[in-house]
UniProtKB/TrEMBL annotation:
Keywords: Pyridoxal phosphate. Coiled coil: none annotated. GO terms for molecular function: pyridoxal phosphate binding; transaminase activity. Belongs to the DegT/DnrJ/EryC1 family. GO terms for biological process: polysaccharide biosynthetic process. It comes from candidate division TA06 bacterium. This is Polysaccharide biosynthesis protein. The active site is at K184. The modification N6-(pyridoxal phosphate)lysine is found at K184.
Length: 400
Protein backbone atom coordinates (compact mmCIF):
# COMPACT_ATOMS: atom_id res chain seq x y z
CA UNK A 1 0.00 0.00 0.00
CA UNK A 2 1.53 3.33 -1.00
CA UNK A 3 1.73 6.17 1.52
CA UNK A 4 1.97 9.82 0.51
CA UNK A 5 4.54 12.19 1.97
CA UNK A 6 1.91 14.69 3.05
CA UNK A 7 -1.64 15.79 2.39
CA UNK A 8 -4.36 18.07 3.70
CA UNK A 9 -7.03 17.08 6.22
CA UNK A 10 -10.34 18.03 4.62
CA UNK A 11 -13.60 17.19 6.39
CA UNK A 12 -17.26 17.94 5.71
CA UNK A 13 -16.83 21.23 7.50
CA UNK A 14 -14.28 22.49 4.98
CA UNK A 15 -16.44 21.30 2.10
CA UNK A 16 -19.55 22.96 3.56
CA UNK A 17 -17.82 26.30 4.13
CA UNK A 18 -16.29 26.42 0.64
CA UNK A 19 -19.58 25.30 -0.82
CA UNK A 20 -21.40 28.09 0.94
CA UNK A 21 -19.10 30.65 -0.68
CA UNK A 22 -20.11 29.27 -4.06
CA UNK A 23 -23.80 28.87 -3.35
CA UNK A 24 -24.78 31.37 -0.67
CA UNK A 25 -22.47 34.35 -0.92
CA UNK A 26 -24.36 36.17 -3.64
CA UNK A 27 -21.29 36.01 -5.82
CA UNK A 28 -18.89 37.53 -3.30
CA UNK A 29 -15.86 35.45 -4.14
CA UNK A 30 -13.28 37.99 -3.03
CA UNK A 31 -13.03 40.69 -0.33
CA UNK A 32 -15.89 39.40 1.77
CA UNK A 33 -16.85 38.12 5.21
CA UNK A 34 -14.78 34.90 5.09
CA UNK A 35 -11.56 36.83 4.75
CA UNK A 36 -12.51 38.85 7.82
CA UNK A 37 -13.44 35.69 9.73
CA UNK A 38 -10.14 34.09 8.80
CA UNK A 39 -8.17 37.14 9.93
CA UNK A 40 -10.25 37.29 13.10
CA UNK A 41 -9.38 33.69 13.87
CA UNK A 42 -5.69 34.61 13.66
CA UNK A 43 -6.07 37.69 15.84
CA UNK A 44 -7.74 35.54 18.46
CA UNK A 45 -5.29 32.66 18.14
CA UNK A 46 -2.12 34.79 18.28
CA UNK A 47 -3.39 37.60 20.49
CA UNK A 48 -1.97 40.06 17.97
CA UNK A 49 -3.91 43.21 17.14
CA UNK A 50 -3.68 42.85 13.40
CA UNK A 51 -3.78 40.05 10.85
CA UNK A 52 -3.53 40.46 7.07
CA UNK A 53 -4.25 37.38 4.96
CA UNK A 54 -2.58 37.09 1.56
CA UNK A 55 -2.23 34.59 -1.27
CA UNK A 56 0.96 32.89 -0.04
CA UNK A 57 3.56 32.81 2.69
CA UNK A 58 6.02 34.27 0.21
CA UNK A 59 3.74 37.26 -0.40
CA UNK A 60 3.45 37.73 3.36
CA UNK A 61 7.25 37.85 3.71
CA UNK A 62 7.60 40.14 0.70
CA UNK A 63 5.09 42.62 2.11
CA UNK A 64 6.83 42.58 5.47
CA UNK A 65 10.24 43.25 3.91
CA UNK A 66 8.73 46.33 2.26
CA UNK A 67 6.78 47.33 5.34
CA UNK A 68 9.88 47.44 7.54
CA UNK A 69 11.81 49.40 4.91
CA UNK A 70 14.62 46.98 4.03
CA UNK A 71 16.32 48.23 0.89
CA UNK A 72 19.31 48.15 -1.46
CA UNK A 73 22.54 47.34 0.30
CA UNK A 74 20.98 46.17 3.56
CA UNK A 75 22.09 42.80 4.84
CA UNK A 76 19.58 40.56 6.53
CA UNK A 77 20.69 37.71 8.77
CA UNK A 78 18.91 34.45 8.05
CA UNK A 79 19.30 30.69 7.74
CA UNK A 80 20.67 28.80 4.74
CA UNK A 81 18.73 25.74 5.94
CA UNK A 82 15.12 26.64 5.19
CA UNK A 83 12.58 26.77 2.41
CA UNK A 84 14.02 29.12 -0.19
CA UNK A 85 11.41 31.88 0.24
CA UNK A 86 12.83 33.02 3.58
CA UNK A 87 16.25 33.68 2.05
CA UNK A 88 14.79 35.19 -1.12
CA UNK A 89 12.85 37.77 0.89
CA UNK A 90 15.75 40.24 1.26
CA UNK A 91 16.50 39.83 -2.47
CA UNK A 92 12.93 40.86 -3.35
CA UNK A 93 13.67 44.36 -2.01
CA UNK A 94 17.29 44.71 -3.15
CA UNK A 95 18.80 43.62 0.17
CA UNK A 96 21.06 40.59 0.57
CA UNK A 97 20.74 37.59 2.90
CA UNK A 98 23.64 37.17 5.30
CA UNK A 99 23.59 33.49 6.09
CA UNK A 100 24.68 32.04 9.38
CA UNK A 101 25.22 28.38 10.01
CA UNK A 102 22.75 26.27 11.96
CA UNK A 103 22.68 24.31 15.17
CA UNK A 104 23.26 20.58 14.72
CA UNK A 105 20.39 19.70 17.05
CA UNK A 106 17.52 22.11 16.30
CA UNK A 107 18.51 22.86 12.66
CA UNK A 108 17.69 26.50 13.42
CA UNK A 109 20.22 29.31 13.16
CA UNK A 110 23.05 29.02 15.64
CA UNK A 111 22.32 31.64 18.31
CA UNK A 112 25.94 32.74 18.81
CA UNK A 113 26.59 33.04 15.10
CA UNK A 114 23.33 34.86 14.43
CA UNK A 115 24.05 37.34 17.21
CA UNK A 116 27.60 37.92 15.98
CA UNK A 117 26.51 38.35 12.36
CA UNK A 118 23.77 40.79 13.34
CA UNK A 119 26.33 43.10 14.90
CA UNK A 120 28.00 43.81 11.52
CA UNK A 121 27.43 47.39 10.51
CA UNK A 122 25.52 46.71 7.30
CA UNK A 123 23.04 44.30 8.94
CA UNK A 124 19.60 45.87 9.28
CA UNK A 125 17.44 42.93 10.08
CA UNK A 126 16.91 39.28 10.87
CA UNK A 127 14.51 36.81 9.31
CA UNK A 128 14.00 34.34 12.12
CA UNK A 129 12.89 30.99 10.71
CA UNK A 130 11.33 28.30 12.92
CA UNK A 131 12.48 25.43 10.80
CA UNK A 132 10.19 22.38 10.59
CA UNK A 133 8.08 24.03 13.30
CA UNK A 134 10.83 24.10 15.94
CA UNK A 135 10.92 27.57 17.55
CA UNK A 136 14.05 29.64 17.10
CA UNK A 137 15.20 31.16 20.40
CA UNK A 138 14.72 34.78 19.32
CA UNK A 139 15.10 36.18 22.85
CA UNK A 140 18.56 34.63 23.08
CA UNK A 141 19.53 36.27 19.78
CA UNK A 142 18.15 39.61 20.98
CA UNK A 143 20.35 39.38 24.07
CA UNK A 144 23.40 39.18 21.80
CA UNK A 145 22.57 42.43 20.01
CA UNK A 146 23.96 44.70 22.76
CA UNK A 147 21.12 47.16 22.22
CA UNK A 148 21.68 47.53 18.47
CA UNK A 149 18.29 48.31 16.93
CA UNK A 150 17.55 45.57 14.46
CA UNK A 151 14.27 44.71 12.82
CA UNK A 152 13.37 41.08 13.37
CA UNK A 153 10.59 39.43 11.45
CA UNK A 154 9.56 35.88 12.16
CA UNK A 155 9.06 33.35 9.42
CA UNK A 156 6.79 30.94 11.24
CA UNK A 157 5.42 29.55 8.00
CA UNK A 158 6.19 26.06 9.30
CA UNK A 159 5.35 26.69 12.95
CA UNK A 160 1.68 27.57 13.35
CA UNK A 161 0.85 26.66 16.95
CA UNK A 162 4.39 26.02 18.22
CA UNK A 163 5.11 27.64 21.57
CA UNK A 164 8.39 28.70 23.08
CA UNK A 165 8.73 29.82 26.69
CA UNK A 166 4.98 30.27 26.84
CA UNK A 167 4.70 32.34 23.66
CA UNK A 168 3.43 31.37 20.25
CA UNK A 169 5.81 31.29 17.31
CA UNK A 170 4.93 34.14 14.98
CA UNK A 171 4.49 36.51 17.95
CA UNK A 172 8.08 36.60 19.15
CA UNK A 173 9.21 39.49 16.95
CA UNK A 174 7.90 42.70 15.38
CA UNK A 175 5.73 40.73 12.97
CA UNK A 176 5.29 37.11 11.98
CA UNK A 177 4.11 35.09 9.01
CA UNK A 178 2.37 31.74 8.51
CA UNK A 179 1.78 29.80 5.30
CA UNK A 180 -0.97 27.47 4.13
CA UNK A 181 0.22 25.34 1.22
CA UNK A 182 -1.47 21.89 1.44
CA UNK A 183 1.48 20.25 3.20
CA UNK A 184 1.25 22.70 6.09
CA UNK A 185 -0.48 22.13 9.44
CA UNK A 186 -3.55 23.87 8.03
CA UNK A 187 -4.23 24.77 4.43
CA UNK A 188 -6.12 27.31 2.38
CA UNK A 189 -4.96 25.72 -0.90
CA UNK A 190 -2.47 28.55 -1.27
CA UNK A 191 -2.21 31.31 1.27
CA UNK A 192 -0.33 33.13 3.96
CA UNK A 193 -0.91 35.65 6.73
CA UNK A 194 0.93 38.42 8.55
CA UNK A 195 0.33 39.05 12.25
CA UNK A 196 1.59 42.08 14.15
CA UNK A 197 0.78 44.65 16.81
CA UNK A 198 2.37 47.38 14.72
CA UNK A 199 -0.20 49.70 13.14
CA UNK A 200 2.12 51.05 10.46
CA UNK A 201 3.03 47.57 9.27
CA UNK A 202 -0.63 46.62 9.28
CA UNK A 203 -1.69 49.67 7.29
CA UNK A 204 1.05 49.16 4.72
CA UNK A 205 0.25 45.44 4.28
CA UNK A 206 -3.51 45.97 3.98
CA UNK A 207 -2.97 48.60 1.31
CA UNK A 208 -0.12 46.94 -0.60
CA UNK A 209 -1.84 43.56 -0.83
CA UNK A 210 -4.66 45.24 -2.75
CA UNK A 211 -3.02 47.45 -5.38
CA UNK A 212 -1.91 50.15 -2.95
CA UNK A 213 -5.41 51.36 -2.24
CA UNK A 214 -5.99 53.62 0.74
CA UNK A 215 -7.69 51.69 3.55
CA UNK A 216 -10.74 53.93 3.47
CA UNK A 217 -10.27 55.31 -0.04
CA UNK A 218 -12.05 54.73 -3.31
CA UNK A 219 -11.56 51.55 -5.35
CA UNK A 220 -9.63 53.27 -8.10
CA UNK A 221 -7.49 55.46 -5.88
CA UNK A 222 -4.00 54.17 -5.22
CA UNK A 223 -1.70 55.86 -2.78
CA UNK A 224 1.37 53.62 -3.09
CA UNK A 225 2.86 50.90 -5.25
CA UNK A 226 0.71 47.88 -4.61
CA UNK A 227 0.18 44.30 -5.69
CA UNK A 228 -2.64 41.84 -5.95
CA UNK A 229 -1.82 39.46 -3.12
CA UNK A 230 -5.41 39.08 -1.93
CA UNK A 231 -6.76 35.81 -0.56
CA UNK A 232 -10.05 34.80 -2.20
CA UNK A 233 -13.17 33.96 -0.22
CA UNK A 234 -12.91 30.31 -1.27
CA UNK A 235 -9.45 30.05 0.23
CA UNK A 236 -10.46 31.99 3.32
CA UNK A 237 -13.53 29.80 3.94
CA UNK A 238 -11.34 26.71 3.76
CA UNK A 239 -9.00 28.41 6.22
CA UNK A 240 -11.79 29.27 8.65
CA UNK A 241 -12.87 25.63 8.81
CA UNK A 242 -9.26 24.55 9.35
CA UNK A 243 -8.72 27.13 12.10
CA UNK A 244 -11.87 25.94 13.87
CA UNK A 245 -10.29 22.48 13.87
CA UNK A 246 -6.76 23.66 14.64
CA UNK A 247 -6.51 22.19 18.15
CA UNK A 248 -7.73 18.83 16.91
CA UNK A 249 -5.33 18.94 13.94
CA UNK A 250 -2.28 19.87 16.02
CA UNK A 251 -3.11 17.24 18.61
CA UNK A 252 -3.43 14.51 15.97
CA UNK A 253 -0.12 15.54 14.44
CA UNK A 254 1.45 15.55 17.86
CA UNK A 255 0.26 12.00 18.47
CA UNK A 256 1.52 10.90 15.06
CA UNK A 257 4.96 12.36 15.81
CA UNK A 258 4.95 10.57 19.17
CA UNK A 259 4.22 7.29 17.41
CA UNK A 260 7.22 7.77 15.09
CA UNK A 261 9.44 8.32 18.13
CA UNK A 262 8.17 5.06 19.58
CA UNK A 263 8.59 3.16 16.34
CA UNK A 264 11.96 4.53 15.33
CA UNK A 265 13.71 5.10 18.65
CA UNK A 266 17.06 3.39 18.80
CA UNK A 267 17.37 2.82 15.06
CA UNK A 268 21.10 2.83 14.42
CA UNK A 269 22.24 5.27 11.74
CA UNK A 270 19.55 7.92 12.08
CA UNK A 271 18.70 10.74 14.45
CA UNK A 272 15.11 11.73 15.20
CA UNK A 273 13.98 15.38 15.54
CA UNK A 274 15.28 17.13 18.64
CA UNK A 275 12.89 19.22 20.75
CA UNK A 276 14.49 21.81 23.03
CA UNK A 277 13.32 21.85 26.66
CA UNK A 278 12.06 25.45 26.25
CA UNK A 279 9.52 24.32 23.67
CA UNK A 280 6.13 24.17 25.41
CA UNK A 281 4.37 22.87 22.36
CA UNK A 282 5.77 21.55 19.11
CA UNK A 283 3.53 22.01 16.10
CA UNK A 284 4.62 19.36 13.64
CA UNK A 285 5.03 20.45 10.04
CA UNK A 286 7.07 17.54 8.69
CA UNK A 287 8.83 14.61 10.33
CA UNK A 288 12.47 14.72 9.33
CA UNK A 289 15.00 12.05 10.16
CA UNK A 290 18.72 12.60 9.68
CA UNK A 291 21.44 10.18 8.66
CA UNK A 292 23.78 10.37 11.64
CA UNK A 293 25.92 7.33 10.92
CA UNK A 294 28.91 9.56 10.18
CA UNK A 295 28.51 12.08 13.00
CA UNK A 296 31.85 10.97 14.46
CA UNK A 297 33.59 11.88 11.23
CA UNK A 298 31.78 15.21 11.13
CA UNK A 299 33.11 16.07 14.60
CA UNK A 300 36.44 16.99 12.98
CA UNK A 301 34.74 19.74 10.96
CA UNK A 302 32.31 21.10 13.52
CA UNK A 303 34.73 23.62 14.97
CA UNK A 304 35.11 25.52 11.70
CA UNK A 305 32.95 28.46 10.64
CA UNK A 306 34.21 27.78 7.12
CA UNK A 307 36.01 24.61 6.11
CA UNK A 308 39.69 25.46 5.39
CA UNK A 309 40.89 24.79 1.85
CA UNK A 310 43.09 21.89 2.83
CA UNK A 311 40.10 20.07 4.35
CA UNK A 312 37.49 20.77 1.69
CA UNK A 313 38.15 17.56 -0.23
CA UNK A 314 37.76 15.42 2.84
CA UNK A 315 34.65 17.32 3.88
CA UNK A 316 33.19 16.97 0.38
CA UNK A 317 33.74 13.21 0.59
CA UNK A 318 31.89 13.03 3.90
CA UNK A 319 28.95 14.93 2.39
CA UNK A 320 28.85 12.59 -0.60
CA UNK A 321 28.98 9.53 1.63
CA UNK A 322 26.11 10.83 3.78
CA UNK A 323 24.13 11.84 0.74
CA UNK A 324 24.65 8.43 -0.85
CA UNK A 325 23.36 6.64 2.23
CA UNK A 326 20.35 8.94 2.29
CA UNK A 327 19.72 8.28 -1.42
CA UNK A 328 19.77 4.54 -0.82
CA UNK A 329 17.26 4.88 2.01
CA UNK A 330 15.17 7.24 -0.11
CA UNK A 331 15.14 4.77 -3.00
CA UNK A 332 14.27 1.89 -0.71
CA UNK A 333 11.28 3.84 0.58
CA UNK A 334 10.21 5.14 -2.84
CA UNK A 335 10.47 1.65 -4.37
CA UNK A 336 8.05 0.44 -1.73
CA UNK A 337 5.58 3.22 -2.48
CA UNK A 338 6.51 5.43 0.47
CA UNK A 339 6.54 9.17 -0.24
CA UNK A 340 9.69 10.89 1.01
CA UNK A 341 11.98 13.75 0.05
CA UNK A 342 15.37 15.19 0.92
CA UNK A 343 14.60 18.18 3.14
CA UNK A 344 16.27 20.80 2.75
CA UNK A 345 18.97 21.36 0.17
CA UNK A 346 21.13 24.17 1.61
CA UNK A 347 19.99 27.44 0.05
CA UNK A 348 23.49 28.80 -0.54
CA UNK A 349 24.18 25.74 -2.72
CA UNK A 350 21.11 26.27 -4.90
CA UNK A 351 22.21 27.09 -8.45
CA UNK A 352 21.27 30.72 -8.52
CA UNK A 353 22.75 31.48 -5.11
CA UNK A 354 26.04 29.93 -6.21
CA UNK A 355 25.90 32.01 -9.38
CA UNK A 356 24.99 35.26 -7.63
CA UNK A 357 27.22 35.03 -4.59
CA UNK A 358 29.89 32.44 -5.43
CA UNK A 359 29.05 30.15 -2.52
CA UNK A 360 30.73 26.76 -2.43
CA UNK A 361 30.80 23.60 -0.39
CA UNK A 362 32.43 24.24 2.97
CA UNK A 363 30.95 27.71 3.53
CA UNK A 364 28.37 26.55 6.10
CA UNK A 365 29.54 23.17 7.37
CA UNK A 366 26.68 22.25 9.71
CA UNK A 367 24.01 23.24 7.20
CA UNK A 368 25.74 21.21 4.50
CA UNK A 369 26.23 18.17 6.66
CA UNK A 370 22.63 18.27 7.91
CA UNK A 371 21.36 18.99 4.40
CA UNK A 372 23.20 15.97 3.02
CA UNK A 373 21.45 13.64 5.44
CA UNK A 374 17.95 14.88 6.17
CA UNK A 375 14.90 13.13 4.83
CA UNK A 376 11.19 13.87 5.35
CA UNK A 377 9.09 10.73 5.77
CA UNK A 378 5.29 10.48 5.41
CA UNK A 379 3.61 12.83 7.82
CA UNK A 380 0.08 14.21 7.75
CA UNK A 381 -2.74 14.75 10.19
CA UNK A 382 -4.53 11.45 9.62
CA UNK A 383 -1.58 9.16 9.10
CA UNK A 384 -2.44 5.86 10.75
CA UNK A 385 -0.43 3.70 13.10
CA UNK A 386 -0.49 0.98 10.46
CA UNK A 387 1.03 3.33 7.87
CA UNK A 388 3.66 4.52 10.31
CA UNK A 389 4.56 0.95 11.23
CA UNK A 390 5.03 0.19 7.54
CA UNK A 391 7.37 3.20 7.10
CA UNK A 392 9.28 2.47 10.29
CA UNK A 393 9.81 -1.18 9.40
CA UNK A 394 11.42 -0.28 6.08
CA UNK A 395 13.73 2.20 7.79
CA UNK A 396 14.69 -0.19 10.56
CA UNK A 397 15.27 -3.09 8.16
CA UNK A 398 17.40 -0.80 6.00
CA UNK A 399 19.81 -0.11 8.85
CA UNK A 400 19.89 -3.66 10.24
C1 LIG B 1 9.93 28.56 6.08
C2 LIG B 1 9.01 28.94 4.96
N1 LIG B 1 8.97 30.21 4.56
C3 LIG B 1 8.17 30.61 3.58
C4 LIG B 1 7.35 29.74 2.91
C5 LIG B 1 6.56 30.23 1.76
O1 LIG B 1 5.21 29.93 1.79
P1 LIG B 1 4.41 29.74 0.42
O2 LIG B 1 4.81 28.45 -0.17
O3 LIG B 1 2.98 29.77 0.88
O4 LIG B 1 4.72 30.89 -0.45
C6 LIG B 1 7.36 28.39 3.28
C7 LIG B 1 6.51 27.42 2.58
O5 LIG B 1 6.79 26.29 2.35
C8 LIG B 1 8.22 27.97 4.31
O6 LIG B 1 8.29 26.69 4.68
Amino acid sequence: MSIPLSGPDITRKEIAYVNSVLTKSGGILSIGPWLEKFEDAFRTFTGRKYAVAVNSGTSALFLLANAVGWKDGDRIVTSPYSFIASANTPLFVGAVPKFVDIDLKTYNMDIEKAGRAALSEDVKGIIAVDVFGHPLNISAIKRKLKGKPITIIEDSCEALGSEFNGRKCGTLALAGTYAFYPNKQITTGEGGIIVTDNKKIYEYCISARSQGRAITGLWLEHERLGYNFRMSELNAALGVAQMERLDEILEKRNRAAGRYYELLRGTRGITLPHISPDVNFMSWFVFVVRISKYDNEFAEFKEYDIIPNNKRNKFGKLLRKTNNLRSSLLNELLNKGIGCKPYFTPIHLQKFYKRMFGYKIGDFPVTEYVGSGTLAIPFFTNITLKQQKQVAKIIRDFFN
